[in-house]
Amino acid sequence: MSAQGDGLVRRTREHTGSVDITTAMNSLLAGLTDEEKKLGLSTELPATTGKAVAVLDVIVMPEDVKPPNSKWGVFQVYCTALASRATVAGVAPVPDGMCP
After folding, report:
1. In the chain, which stretches have pLDDT less than 50?
2. Of 68, 69, 88, which is closest to residue 78 (Cα–Cα)?
3. 24: exposed, middle or buried (Cβ count in 10 Å: 0-12, 13-18, 19+)
4. pTM, two decimal places
């Protein structure tokens, strides 16, 4: 989230190999980088060493990651999935302009 806590900020991270929805989600779940912290960014999701995995067409989050209890946490997951070119189904869409 932005330093003001009023919107999402698109961030990219370096990865070797192919990047898919699980790579993107695990990057999100790894927490903020030192650079992101210096920029004053925040996240509504707890950092975890657990890994999200793909099972058929569903992303299963690590056991220690509870469903986000804020709209910004939901938006972070939703927008990360969209940015990784995943099809998001069964979730109410995020309002236009909310995904950077």
Report:
1. none
2. 88
3. buried
4. 0.79
